[in-house]
Amino acid sequence: MKKKWMSTVGAVTLCTALAMPAYAVETENKTETHHHEHSISGFIDYAELQKSLKQIEASSKGTVQVDVAGQSHKGLDIYTATVGTGDKVILVQSEIHGNEKTGTVAILDLLKKLSNNSKQSREIREELTLVFMPMMNPDASEGDKRRNSLTWDEVIEQYPQLSEVAPSWNYLDSGISQSYDYGANPGFDVNRDFNPELDYEPEAEDFPGASNLPGWFITPEAQTSRDVYKSLQEEFGNVDVFIDLHHQGMYYVDGTADPVTLSLSAQFVPDPNTPEGEKYAEYADNYNYDFSRQLNLAAYNELQSYGNSKFTNISLYSQGLDLPGTALGSYALNGSGTVLFEVRGQTQMMGQKEKGQLVKSVERGLTGIIESVADGSVESLDPDDYEDIPLTSYRPSN
């Protein structure tokens, strides 16, 4: 949201608990660069994202506005695409982990539909302001890896007050993780670098931290997401909905042998209004768990409406989490209704298999949320029905 899309877009050459990869549109004559047995040549890369965003903005005749919100560690632009002028704000981000690409394609597909001249699209645009961040971590996306490319030494250069402390717990600089050599190419899990105190500055006593503690905004990618979030708060007073698009491994709908197509969740920190969440008491007035549950139900009901199909294999991601260092946890404490999407599979596990179905699952789930927020029907859903969604199981049931 900081500087407008430049007229010339050039080709650029050059993950912990919550998430995991992806499936995108087919492209031709794309170089197959990957570090495992699965080709990623059918997935959208950074240069293709730039091209697609430029085309969508141009064809929308001003309905979609594409902006540069910030830069990655390696200097790649991180984009926002905004559509709609309504008072209700929905922020959607994808590819904070670079090997989780399905959400990026779903976002591009939705932008095309939301910017058309249909009566429904016009009505949605009148009610909502939708801000999409389709590739939050472009360095990792280009490397088909979970983490970014920032080193601890570079963090210390920027924050010398951290020179005597151990690296943050979400930093990996050794070994092979998910088929990627982080010993040779260290980096941070950006989705653990958030803090509910949006103006937080790194302090030595907060390192190395832990999964159930806030992050630090030391990565440029997390800083960019935070800056977009704060700018929307300043403009609208609140970011009503925040949705984070991820991938997970192969899991099953609890009590069945059905592989999960998509897991959802509304819960990332304990409710500040309960004894379990007392440490977050300063955020109690903002936190709205019931609204988060209603949003998740809107996505669940939309996917269930397709009858007996793989779209109905929806489950709840792990509950009872305390992850304030995630974007979902931090933004929930700041007053946003939150939704996690966890699509089945990763590039190092499944390659392009079933990518069309998985992209469509994300797109339809997002559509259920967008339409129900626009027309207000989400508010009529019973939040307690969220508890009836089956849980995710690690093993198929006999």
UniProtKB/TrEMBL annotation:
Cofactor(s), by name: Zn(2+)
- GO CC annotation: extracellular space
Query: Highest taxon of the source?
Result: Bacteria
Gene3D superfamilies in alphabetical order: Zn peptidases
Q: Where is this region: Disordered?
A: 378-398
What are the protein's UniProt keywords? Answer: Hydrolase, Metalloprotease, Protease, Signal, Zinc
Q: Which parts pass through the membrane?
A: none
One annotated GO molecular function is:
zinc ion binding
> Any keyword Heme?
no
Q: Could you state one GO biological process linked to this protein?
A: proteolysis
Range of residues in the leader sequence: 1-24
Instruction: Please report the stretch or stretches of sequence annotated as the Peptidase M14 domain.
Output: 42-398
Q: Give the PROSITE patterns listed for this entry.
A: PEPTIDASE_M14 (PS52035)
Xref: Pfam families: Peptidase_M14
User: What InterPro entries does this protein's entry cite?
Assistant: Peptidase_M14
Family in the record: Belongs to the peptidase M14 family.
Please state what the protein is called. Peptidase M14
